[in-house]
Automatic annotation (TrEMBL):
Keywords: Acetylation, FAD, Flavoprotein, Oxidoreductase. One of its GO terms (molecular function) is flavin adenine dinucleotide binding. CDD domains: ACAD10_11_N-like, HAD_sEH-N_like. This is Acyl-CoA dehydrogenase family member 10. Residues 738-839 form the Acyl-CoA oxidase/dehydrogenase middle domain. It comes from Ciona intestinalis (Transparent sea squirt).
């Protein structure tokens, strides 16, 4: 053979076939349309005309769109198909270029024979340098395309070779058939690596240059080759008579690596040494690299054959070791261009298998039990890389600082100990030339004993980096499925299957840690580059990259944080089951919590239909109960509570309560309790909203404020005795209660201002003070008051207060007047002003303990606030319903109100605002369920501000649409409005909550 002819797309450049499929998918063109159009139109179509330069790219777009439209039977626009292909085919496959260079060095002629086209700029498509070829034949330039004979003949004549002296590589069968019939030898290219291997066999010459990936040695990296040769002769008896040709591998950032070539009769070698200059402690330990490679190499892991280790710095300036050069493919680009999807899959499978082999090495048998410490690997690593980072810090990277705090708080428990490679990436494996099989694993610099999952996570880094990312090429945005590359989840699954592990639920922690580590390494390289020590040209740009990596790391930390947050959901069987996750003898040591499965159930239900069936049933029963029993009596209740009898309960009330109780619609508010329905906050939120549709409804279901909050206090903090005495009758709906905190003489938004006193007197407590806005105080059924006062004015600010249970008939308790809200007195509940004058109760009436007042108040207010908000949403829904009904029937100036734009806008705005509020409240309820009231403090404060003000606006629009009727007692709107407005002050004014939100936000 004298010449090799290469096709362009699919041989020297990536294949256009997968790109076409991808294009069709993206543009929603029926799959297969493009190739079918090319085939069906044949010689008469736009495609061959484009190939022979008869039409240019722009003209092609027009004609080809029409052709595709006819074939697909629907409108198809492929104007940008060619630019799409051009974009995807711009980088040549490095292995092929390398083969071409080798061919030329061996004296073979090379040609490029391509069917291409004239681009919109008038130039032909040729995204590869002509310098690689002796002859370039472009169909669009010469006016004839493959598989027509003249183009082959032209190529042969320009090469000045006979057909039988040439080999032609193409990915299209018809092109090969034509070449073959002319007597040219052919190779069908499906996978370029396989094809190059076949070419290599045919020609019997190596087609991978030994110099591949190397550069001349930089001045600061040179060493004494004479002394080195002397050393080899002394140690290995090699009898070398001359100095070697030395080149430096551009691969690898840290330990300088050299290709040592003593000519054709001596095996080529690779030398790895420490970098010169002052180094960070424990870094660049080539001695360790040598030791581990020797050890794992004897236990099933393929590594390059090792020749010698020299720890004597006097030979070439630093310690070093020498190994044989292993021939094979190193894939720099993780998208593996030029391969078939099948081969790509195998490459990744091999990588995972090799990783498993490394992790399965028996460290005792391999004699490396002391190669690293046992246990707490990740913790130590976090410490090491934190220190390394801090030593190399050149500027502040905020996400790095956050990770430094976060990682130690989220360490995995129960790690196993195995060999870890420490730098698992596709280009640290050498693959066989003819098939995807690992023949050596390289770069053991960061290896140690530790948690194997850290290796696995590290190997997944490219999935989160863009394709053009410097130093490590990424896979982000690549169509993995199309290319046959497993996703990172599939890698994880393969690994777990192979190692017989169940799912690794905290894998995002390991990802965060991996990115942190790589950021720290890059920062080190960056600092060294500033001092001229780094072994790569790219080092200078790594400063910015460190920042990018640590930002990605932080995004994983946030993701893991959210998973942990969800995991704490007490309501839906929070799954923190421990699973033994390691095969064989270590099985007990290795366990990880498994939440992912139960996580499915922990989604926030944003619609009633997403609730558990039993709650949906309750919801529907409640709606029915409202229809059957509540709305029909609403007017009667309203009239009664405006009459002179209003300070006694409506005569129907107790009957309705009994009905609700027997219908199972009772105490629905109490979560996780023996007493209530055992609903979580989200579930109750939906029910609470229904009750909020009528001001009188909550009490019918024993779900009204302030009793609900008081019952929660007793359920959570009360003694058995207190529960028996007060909680039980409250739960049974026999008595009512109130909560006395606010005082007229001090600003009570700040509860530390409270002046009422609690003094000890023997075994009794004596209470004095004046309270107001004590809701429920006026009700004749009110039997118990929770009183908040100060028992120790010298204690810390939030420890001075206590809560004491005061029976309403205790001497000295004097209810002096009802207060009104916009004139409403809320009879029979009422908001009372109450004087406590030397009120004496037994010490046992203290709730929890002296000084716990604030703590109890906080616990009480979370659920209380969310209940208020959900009820308000019910009021808003009802107001909107009433408004919609009203505007359909009222006619002004000749038209129904419902036809007015302003009314339509008001309806729309109200719908938007109600739904916004509901979602925020549901999210808050969910957070309370999964993380607890404390963790949801900000969200609770947010709804407490957002909902009353928004609902006020919704009701206000309804009021306006109603005209004067809305303000009257004939409709519930005025009552709703007064209550929603009051709630901007009750339970703490907006400003106080806003201050708390902002504080948390800023923190
Ligand atoms: C209908 C209703 C029912 C109630 N029920 C009860 C009950 O059952 N039990 C009970 O103890 N109390 C109850 N309250 C009282 C309520 O909790 C208090 O009114 C509330 O805590 C505010 O206290 P204050 O009225 O003393 O206002 P102040 O503390 O005097 O505050 C006045 C205003 O100052 C502003 N302000 C306060 N702090 C800040 C700040 N940090 N930054 C900026 N501005 C600020 C706010 O606008 C606030 O409205 C009820 C109130 C209402 C209206």
């Amino acid at each position: 053979f004298r010449a090799v002819i290469f096709d362009m797309g699919g041989v020297v450049l990536p294949s256009p076939f997968p790109m076409t499929k991808e294009y069709e998918l993206q543009k929603k063109i029926p799959p297969g349309t493009i190739w079918k159009t090319i085939k069906d139109y044949g010689d008469k179509g736009a495609w061959p005309k484009l190939e022979i330069g008869e039409i240019n790219a722009e003209e092609f777009g027009q004609i080809f769109s029409e052709e595709c439209t006819k074939i697909a039977g629907e409108t198809v626009n492929v104007h940008d198909f060619l630019p799409y292909l051009e974009h995807g085919m711009k980088s040549p496959i490095s292995e092929v270029l390398d083969a071409i260079n080798c061919l030329r060095q061996e004296g073979y002629k090379t040609a490029l024979l391509t069917n291409n086209w004239i681009q919109s700029d008038g130039k032909s498509l040729l995204p590869i340098s002509r310098d690689h070829f002796d002859v370039v034949i472009e169909s669009a330039v010469v006016g004839v395309n493959k598989p027509k004979y003249p183009i082959y003949n032209l190529c042969l004549s320009q090469l000045n070779v006979k057909p039988e002296d040439t080999i032609f590589l193409d990915d299209m069968q018809p092109n090969l058939v034509a070449a073959k019939s002319l007597g040219i030898h052919t190779i069908k290219v499906e996978d370029v690596h396989v094809a190059i291997n076949e070419l290599e066999q045919q020609l019997n010459i190596p087609l991978t240059s030994t110099n591949k990936g190397t550069t001349p040695v930089r001045k600061e990296m040179q060493f004494d080759t004479r002394k080195f040769t002397e050393y080899l002769n002394n140690q290995l008896n090699m009898g070398l008579t001359h100095e070697p040709e030395v080149r430096e591998f551009s691969h690898g950032q840290s330990n300088p690596t050299y290709l040592i070539d003593y000519g054709p009769n001596v095996t080529k070698m690779v030398l790895r040494k420490k970098p010169p200059g002052k180094l960070l402690p424990s870094a660049h330990a080539v001695e360790r690299e040598y030791r581990i490679m020797k050890a794992v190499g004897n236990h099933g892991v393929k590594v390059p054959p090792l020749l010698a280790l020299c720890e004597d710095s006097s030979i070439i300036g630093t310690p070093f070791y020498v190994m044989e050069l292993v021939q094979g493919n190193i894939y720099k680009d993780p998208s593996l261009p030029g391969m078939t999807p099948e081969s790509r899959k195998k490459v990744y499978r091999e990588m995972v298998d090799t990783l498993c082999k490394i992790h399965r090495v028996d460290i005792d048998k391999a004699g490396i039990n002391d190669y690293g410490k046992h246990g707490n690997y990740v913790e130590r690593q976090v410490g090491i890389w934190t220190k390394q980072y801090q030593r190399s810090e050149t500027h502040t990277i905020p996400s790095m600082n956050r990770l430094i705090t976060w990682l130690p708080q989220h360490l995995p428990t129960n790690e196993v100990t195995s060999v870890v490679h420490g730098d698992v990436r596709i280009d640290n494996f050498i693959f066989r030339r003819d098939q995807p099989e690992v023949v050596a694993t390289l770069d053991w610099e960061l290896s140690t004993l530790g948690d194997p999952i850290s290796d696995l996570a590290y190997s997944c880094i490219p999935y989160f980096l863009p394709t053009n990312f410097p130093i490590i090429s990424g896979l982000k945005g690549v169509n993995l499925n199309e290319l046959g590359i497993p996703t990172h989840e599939q890698i994880l699954e393969m690994y777990c299957n192979e190692m017989q592990l169940p799912n690794i639920d905290n894998f995002d922690f390991y990802m965060a840690f991996s990115f942190f580590r790589v950021a720290s390494i890059l920062q080190g390289v960056y600092k060294r580059s500033k001092q001229g020590q780094a072994s790569s040209d790219q080092a200078g740009v790594t400063g910015k990259l460190a920042e990018h990596m640590s930002d990605i790391g932080w995004s994983f930390a946030s993701k893991e944080g959210f998973r942990l947050f969800n995991k704490t959901n007490p309501s839906i069987g929070s799954g923190t089951r421990k699973y033994s996750t390691h095969a064989g003898k270590d099985s007990e040591k290795y366990s990880r919590s498994k939440v992912a499965e139960s996580n499915k159930d922990m989604k926030l239900p944003i619609h009633v239909s997403a609730l558990p069936p039993s709650t949906q049933q309750l919801h529907s029963n409640l709606l029915q109960f409202m229809e059957d029993h509540v709305y029909p009596v609403e007017k009667s209740f309203s009239e009664y509570y405006s009459s002179e009898n209003r300070w006694t309960p409506h005569p129907e009330l107790e009957k309705l309560k009994a009905k609700a109780k027997s219908a199972g619609l009772w105490n629905l508010f109490l979560p996780h309790s023996d007493h209530g329905a055992g609903l979580c906050n989200v579930e109750y939120a939906y029910l609470c909203e229904v009750m909020g549709r009528c001001l009188y409804a909550p009490e019918i279901f024993n779900c009204s404020a302030p009793d609900t909050g008081n019952m929660e206090v007793l359920a959570e903090f009360g003694t058995e005795d207190q529960k028996q005495r007060w909680l039980k009758p409250l739960l049974d709906g026999e008595i009512r209660s109130c909560f006395a905190m606010t005082e007229p003489q001090v600003a009570s938004s700040d509860a530390t201002n409270i002046e009422s006193s609690i003094d000890e007197d023997g075994d009794r407590l004596v209470l004095n003070g004046r309270k107001w806005w004590t809701s429920g105080a006026m009700d004749p059924r009110m039997k118990i008051i929770i009183f908040m006062g100060k028992n120790d004015k010298n204690a810390a600010r939030h420890k001075q207060q206590s809560m004491v249970l005061v029976p309403s008939d205790t001497p000295g308790v004097e209810i002096i007047r009802p207060l009104t809200v916009f004139g409403f007195d809320d009879a029979p509940v009422g908001h009372g002003e109450v004087i406590f004058n030397n009120v004496s109760v037994p010490k046992e009436n203290m709730i929890l303990e002296p000084g716990a007042g604030f703590k109890i108040a906080q616990a009480r207010l979370g659920p209380g606030r969310i209940h208020h908000c959900m009820r308000l949403i019910g009021s808003a829904e009802r107001s909107l319903d009433l408004m919609k009904e009203r505007v359909k029937s009222r006619v002004t100036f000749g038209r129904a109100l419902v036809t007015r734009d302003t009314i339509l806008r008001d309806i729309a705005t109200s719908r938007i605002e109600i739904d916004q509020c509901r979602l925020l409240v549901l999210m808050t309820a969910h957070m309370m369920d999964v993380a607890g009231n404390k963790a949801a403090a900000k969200e609770i404060a947010m709804i407490k501000v957002a909902v009353p003000i928004t609902v006020s606006r919704v009701i206000d629009r309804a009021l306006q649409a109603f005209g004067a009727a809305g303000l009257s007692g004939d409709f519930p709107l005025a009552g709703f409005y007064a209550w929603s407005r009051a709630l901007r002050i009750a339970d703490g004014p907006d400003a106080v909550h806003e201050a708390a939100i902002a504080k948390k936000e800023l923190a």
